[in-house]
Every structure is written in C-alpha cells, then in structure tokens.
C-alpha cells in the first residue's frame, strides 16, 4: 500500500478525496491546521471507509514542522496538496496573508519532495487562472490571464513554481488539476461542505437559506449576456472531482505521464446559470427558496465552463453525477449537520 500525504485533507474536497484514496487501497496521512476545518471530519471518513487515516495537525507555514513530518514519514510516495486559503474577497483585503499561506507552504513541501528518491505531486489549482476566457468551452491551452484576485494569483504562481521545479528535479512529477465549481457531498451525509462563517460559495448559501440560517440568497446581477441574465459556471460533483485526483495520482505513480508537469481541466463540460442551480435545488428538495436579485458583484466573470476532452482522453475520466445529484446530496448534508 503506497502512503499518500493529503494536505488540507479535512477540508471539503480533501476529505472526499481521502475517502476515494482509502477505497482504492492507499494508506493516507492527512496534514491539516484546522483553520477552516474540524477534526470531527475524521469520524465521517472513518464511518464511510471503516479505516481511520493518520492525522497530523501541522501548519505548513512552519518550515521546521514540515521537515520533521517528512523525517517521520519518509516513505510518502505521493502528495495531493489542497491546503490553502481560498476566499477571493478576503484575499483582496489580506494579500500578504494569502501569498504567505498559499505559496510559502507550497515551497516548503516541494523542498522536502526534492530530497525523496521519487515523488508524485498533485496540485489543487483552479479555473480562475483563465479569468474570463476568450472562447468557451475553456481548453487547457487557453491563455492564463492576469488574476482578478490575490487568491487567483496564488494558483497561477503556484503552477509556475511547480513547473519550474519539475524542470530541474528529475525525480519529481506533477499534475495541476484546474477545477471548475465543486459542489455536493458524500451520499452517506457523513462528510460535506461546512464553511466557517458566511459561505463564499453559492450552494452552501442556498442550503443554509433553505434551512433557515440565512434570511435570503442574493443573486448578483440578472443583466449578464446569458440565457437568463445570471452568471454561468461549471458545477462539478465533489465525488467526481475526488475520483479524478486518484486517477491523476495513479497516472504519475505508474509513470504514464507524458511530461514531468501536466495540467488538466476538471469540470462537467456544461455551464449552469445561478438561477438554474436554484431551480435544481427547489426541484430535488421540494423547498421554495427565498432569493433576491441584487446588483452585480465586482470581479465576477460572465461565464466559464470546461472543455473536458483532455481529461477524458488522457486520464480516462469523466463526470458521472448530475447537478440534481449534487444538490440533493448537499441538502441531505445540510439537514444532517443542523439536526433536521
């Protein structure tokens, strides 16, 4: 059983990926500083898989602690790196916090991997690197635009750091996975998205409004050049996304990669508007959602959805779960968390 390190493994996407790794037979060790997650997530993972992953509470900004971890776990074969701050608005207000947290931790990890006989590295990147793309759907060859926020910039610079490192470290292989919009929860409702404070993402705001935690959902703008005037995004079920990480990792571990550094888009290939997501929620939950159209939000792009052909052709991966599946699982999770 290869030992795989998952940083940020108690977060939303991280925890679902840990489940898929354990189900695929890997031994998983999680690093998380619990700044935006809870140790209780370990119980959910264990309930699903029957196996409790190793957990180390470490702040990856502490270089000495990162080194000590790799001395203790010198048999790590691969790393999936999720740990990062991810609120766009907060990054605009606190740019240095984002650069230190998202880039410093990445550098310290790569320095340790450089010393291993071989290492496979999966980076949690984002479709934000494309900005408002010139053409839709967005392929991996689309130009990387100047970032709209320090958060987006950390993903761009992170990719550059990894690519530059792979050029000079022959024992390192890496894949950057550019996600579109992950939503949903595990069908067991044992793990899901649990934002601390006011949600930054659409779906938890929808479910929290429906359960009565929020008075209403604000829909930012209905005058965009889209089918119903609201912004369009590519919403991908978190379980489909988690599977893609396992497939990408296997590609590296089995030396099937074509270059030392590769990028893949992860999405459904289909765009859904904000109002279509609201309607999907109302359809699967039977709840009427209280929402209000308000002015546009600064920094929002009009439309983004993925061309998924490269992931399909190279990784043999494609999404299997629908928008309705995701909304229903998110609602079940919200109800469980709130004890409803």
Mean pLDDT: 97
User: How far is it from the N-terminal to the C-terminal residue, by CA?
Assistant: 39 Å
Instruction: Please tally the helical runs, counting DSSP H or I stretches of 4 or more residues.
Output: 11
- Most strands sheet: 7 strands, parallel
Helix percent reads 40-55%
Find the structural class using helix and strand composition. alpha/beta
Number of strands: 13
Overall description:
With 340 residues, the chain is α/β, with parallel strands linked by helices. It is built from 11 helices and 13 strands. A 7-stranded parallel β-sheet has the order 3-2-1-4-5-6-11, with helices on both faces. Helix 3 runs parallel beside helix 5. The chain starts with a strand and ends with a helix.
List keywords for this structure.
single chain, 340 residues, alpha/beta, 7-stranded parallel sheet, 13 strands, globular
Describe the secondary-structure layout.
Layout: E1 3-7, H1 12-23, E2 27-32, H2 41-49, E3 54-57, H3 63-72, E4 76-81, H4 88-93, H5 95-114, E5 119-126, H6 150-168, E6 172-179, E7 181-183, H7 202-211, E8 217-220, E9 232-233, E10 235-237, H8 238-253, E11 261-266, E12 272-273, H9 274-285, E13 291-294, H10 309-315, H11 323-337
Parallel strand pairs: 1-2, 1-4, 2-3, 4-5, 5-6, 6-11, 7-10, 8-13
Antiparallel strand pairs: 9-12
Helix pairs in contact: 1-2, 1-8, 3-5, 5-6, 7-9, 7-11, 9-11
């Amino acid at each position: 059983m290869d030992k795989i390190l998952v940083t940020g493994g108690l977060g939303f996407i991280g925890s679902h990926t840990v489940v898929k790794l354990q189900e695929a037979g890997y031994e998983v060790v999680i690093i998380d500083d619990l700044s935006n997650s809870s140790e209780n997530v370990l119980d959910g993972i264990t309930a699903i898989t029957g196996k409790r992953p190793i957990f180390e509470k470490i702040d990856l900004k502490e270089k000495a602690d990162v080194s000590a971890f790799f001395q203790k776990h010198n048999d790590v074969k691969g790393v999936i790196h999720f740990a990062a701050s991810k609120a766009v608005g907060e990054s605009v207000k606190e740019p240095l916090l984002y650069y230190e947290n998202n880039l410093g931790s990445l550098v310290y990890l790569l320095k340790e991997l450089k010393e291993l006989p071989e290492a496979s590295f999966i980076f949690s990147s984002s479709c934000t690197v494309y900005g408002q793309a010139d053409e839709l759907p967005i392929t991996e060859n689309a130009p990387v635009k100047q970032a709209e926020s320090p958060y987006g910039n950390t993903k761009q610079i992170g990719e550059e750091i990894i690519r530059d490192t792979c050029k000079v470290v022959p024992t390192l292989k890496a894949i950057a996975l550019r996600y579109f919009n992950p939503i949903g929860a595990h069908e067991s409702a044992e793990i899901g998205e649990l934002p601390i404070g006011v949600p930054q993402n659409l779906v938890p705001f929808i479910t929290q409004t429906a359960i009565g935690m929020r008075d209403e959902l604000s829909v930012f703008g209905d005058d965009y050049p889209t089918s119903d005037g609201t912004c369009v995004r590519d919403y991908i079920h978190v379980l489909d996304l988690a599977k893609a990480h396992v497939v990408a990792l296997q590609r590296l571990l089995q030396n099937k990669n074509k270059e030392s550094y590769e990028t893949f888009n992860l999405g459904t290939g289909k765009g859904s508007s904000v109002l279509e997501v609201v309607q999907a929620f109302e359809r699967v939950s039977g709840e009427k959602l209280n929402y209000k159209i308000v002015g546009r939000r600064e920094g929002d792009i009009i439309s983004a959805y993925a061309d998924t052909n490269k992931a399909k052709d190279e990784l043999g991966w494609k999404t299997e779960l629908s928008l309705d599946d995701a909304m229903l699982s998110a609602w079940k999770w919200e109800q469980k968390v709130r004890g409803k």
